């Protein structure tokens, strides 16, 4: 599954027709349950390192996609499954969904970026509490601590988070695609540095939207009082 996800991520990276990516599961009640422990126990120490490295790079590739990525979490997201969601730009969860970085139960630590991305979302103290205790929380609690953007009540079809993600995607897609990409880069790079350096990232990203046809179209549409027709150019 890791290799299939890696291939899919690389394929979609250069698809200009994709304005928003939603990651969801086709398995009711489970977003991603994490590593197959029955498979893991058969691995030698020499095999574990490369496997985890591949997982880490795949999750990072997901994080670095140019378009907004939404995780629709309608069920369980544990270990690497939650790490995958943490790499997304936005997380929508059913209030009943269960999630946690539970690796310390197995005497290991998160290896797919969880030790770095979770503290950046919820703060170091909360992240430590969750990881030290291997606690599993529901979607409502995850929203309270800002682990997910929104928690929605589950529906009979068990796809409430996906349906809300679709609504959110429909809000994003009419916007200028290059502008959305540049905003993502400016935010992602800026939060890692001091304010002065972050403002330089913003300046550099703004410079890339100035010569676009979309920027001209946006101004004309505003003047002519009509919806803009952006082409990502």
3D architecture notes:
With 233 residues, the chain is of the alpha/beta class. The protein has eleven helices and eight strands. The strands form two sheets. The protein has a four-stranded parallel sheet, sandwiched between helices. Strands 2-4-6-7 form a four-stranded mixed sheet. α1 (2-13) packs parallel to α3 (45-63), α3 runs parallel beside α4 (80-86) and α9 packs antiparallel against α10 (195-209).
List the helices and strands and how they pair.
Blueprint lengths: L1 H12 L7 E3 L6 E3 L4 H4 L4 H19 L5 E5 L2 E3 L1 H7 L3 E5 L3 E3 L13 H9 L1 H10 L3 E2 H6 L5 E3 L7 H13 L4 H14 L4 H15 L3 H12 L9
Parallel strand pairs: 1-3, 2-4, 3-5, 4-6, 5-8
Antiparallel strand pairs: 6-7
Helix pairs in contact: 1-3, 3-4, 5-6, 9-10
Radius of gyration: 19 Å
Give the helix tally: 11
Largest sheet properties: 4 strands, parallel
Q: Globular, elongated, flat, extended or rod-shaped: what is the shape?
A: globular
Structural category is: alpha/beta
Mean pLDDT: 93
Q: Give the amount of beta strand, in percent.
A: 5-15%
End-to-end span in angstroms?
A: 34 Å
Spans of at least 5 consecutive residues whose pLDDT stays below 50 are: none
Binned, the helix content reads 40-55%
Order of helices and strands: HEEHHEEHEEHHEHEHHHH
Topology, number of strands: 8
Task: Give the strand line-up of the largest sheet.
Answer: 1-3-5-8
Oligomerization category of the chains in this entry: single chain
């Amino acid at each position: 599954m890791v290799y299939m996800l890696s291939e899919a991520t690389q394929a979609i990276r250069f698809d200009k027709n994709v304005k928003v990516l939603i990651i969801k599961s086709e398995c009711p009640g489970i977003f991603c349950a994490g590593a197959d422990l029955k498979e893991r126990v058969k691995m030698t120490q020499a095999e574990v390192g490369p496997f985890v490295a591949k997982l880490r790079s795949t999750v990072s590739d997901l994080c670095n996609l140019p378009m907004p990525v939404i995780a629709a979490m309608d069920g369980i997201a544990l270990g690497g499954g939650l790490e995958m969601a943490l790499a997304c730009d936005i997380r929508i969860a059913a209030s009943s969904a269960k999630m946690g970085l539970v690796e310390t139960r197995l005497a290991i630590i998160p290896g797919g970026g969880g030790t770095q991305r979770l503290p950046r979302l919820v703060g170091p103290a909360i992240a430590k509490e969750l990881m030290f205790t291997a606690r599993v929380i529901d979607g409502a609690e995850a929203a309270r601590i800002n682990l997910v953007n929104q928690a929605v009540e589950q529906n009979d079809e068990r796809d409430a988070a996906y349906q809300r993600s679709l609504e959110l995607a429909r809000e994003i897609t009419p916007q200028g695609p290059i502008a959305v990409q540049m905003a993502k880069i400016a935010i992602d790079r800026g939060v890692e540095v001091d304010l002065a350096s972050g403002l330089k990232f913003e300046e550099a990203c703004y410079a890339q939207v100035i010569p676009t046809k979309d920027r001209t179209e946006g101004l004309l549409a505003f003047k002519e009082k009509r919806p803009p027709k952006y082409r990502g150019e």
